[in-house]
Amino acid sequence: MVQELRADDPRRVGDYTLLHRLGQGGMGSVYLGRTRAGRPVAVKVARAELVAEPDFRERFRREIGMARQVGGFWTGAVVDADPEAERPWLATEYISGPSLQQAVVEAGALAEPAALRLAAGLAEALAAIHKTGLVHRDLKPSNVLLDRDGPRVIDFGIAHAVQATALTSPGDFFGTPGFLSPEQISGAQVGPASDIFALGAVLVFATTATGPFGEGDVATLLYRTVHSEPDISGVPDAARKIAAMCLQRDPRRRPSPQELLDHLTGHGSSTSARWLPQPVHTLIDQHQTALRTALDVPTVADGQLGRTHDEQTAPATEPASQEAARFRTSRTQTLLWACVTTLVAFTISGGGYLLFPFGFPTGGIYTFTPLMIIAALLFGAAARPRHTLDVAADGLRFSRGRQSGFSSWSTIARTRVIGGARASVVVWLTPGTAQPHPSGYRPYHGGLRIYPIRGSFRRRRREARELRAALAWYSPHTYDSSP
């Protein structure tokens, strides 16, 4: 979780304002930063002793260049870096979720379906990393962040640059005992197979809450890794087979990420949108709430989106509330148009039946009748129940007349703002979730339209833009930006 900045911590790095300290790793200190447009990023600043190494900047530059090429769904992307700064730094996508370490400690070990989904996500992440020629070298539970749609692997792309330096004194090493491969400990050549060994160790931890080599001091864990067989007796059957494949002492006998994915597909790993247990979803919600608090987003006016108190650093599309952004359908404009249409109908027709009881002027009836039909439709639309939608930190609150409903973000698989004649906010719930919505909402390709976007063309376009910004801000991982 976030900590206050220390007196000696920088307040700004590159174009990023540093807000809080997130922790410290092998490279240096990690901070929660904010872009000039208001997006959160994780900023890692190198330790001073690393900078003193003769070739560190060149290695850092090369590793970051390769890390920028890493794609895939399950990695935290590198968005910026400066190897020439006084203390080199890099900025990565900020993922607002608990680490696997925190989730297991606070919510317990994962059940087998979730563990297999975790393994598949990690295998895809390693495939993307290895494709660029990188090796992570420090895959461990604290470097795996959990999100609603799958795991994310962080802190890749700097391991080689850091490991290649003389970190401190002879005998020191880079990595985490219990998750290091035997070849990393013995000083043999390290390749992609080392990451596969670490994946197996992470899988054991996820399902048993302890690593494959137990607990103990550094020397004990290193000795067990090189000389003892891993303990995978408590791992569920299908996950145990995967772990055993990965934890082979000989790196040549370990599978590649693609082979792992083939094996996991054959064993029916979970494809459910809701892959994590409820306690972990609660942790994700807590992290997202803490992020909004850390970014210091102020209060919103009813139905409005606006800038933060700092006009220079906040985005124009950011919801100006950490509580909720409220939207309401307006009936005033519809009622006004109904009255105007009625008045125009009577005026054009010469007053209609009231002024000409024995008949219309020539052609009057052909104008009066369609205009009155339009007016009747507008009066009917104005009489429809009013819709309200609150996009909030904990989920979506919506009402239709006197009926109301609520869906927390943990029960929502996808949100989308659709355009066209029936522009609406549509939600898709995770499988198995009971429908909490009031009656009268129309279905849309498996989802429900919970809020109609009405009014003039300019109003609809403005409100659609504001709704998209609110959904992307409060739940970026469920928001579908498709038009």
From TrEMBL:
SUPFAM superfamilies: Protein kinase-like (PK-like). The chain crosses the membrane at residues 335-358, 364-383. Residues 16-266 form the Protein kinase domain. The keyword Ribonucleoprotein does not apply. SMART domains: S_TKc (SM00220). GO terms for molecular function: ATP binding; protein serine/threonine kinase activity. The keyword Kinase applies. InterPro entries: Kinase-like_dom_sf, Prot_kinase_dom, Protein_kinase_ATP_BS, Ser/Thr_kinase_AS. ATP binds at K44. PANTHER family: MITOGEN-ACTIVATED PROTEIN KINASE KINASE KINASE 20-RELATED, SERINE_THREONINE-PROTEIN KINASE YBDM-RELATED. This is Protein kinase domain-containing protein. It comes from Amycolatopsis taiwanensis.
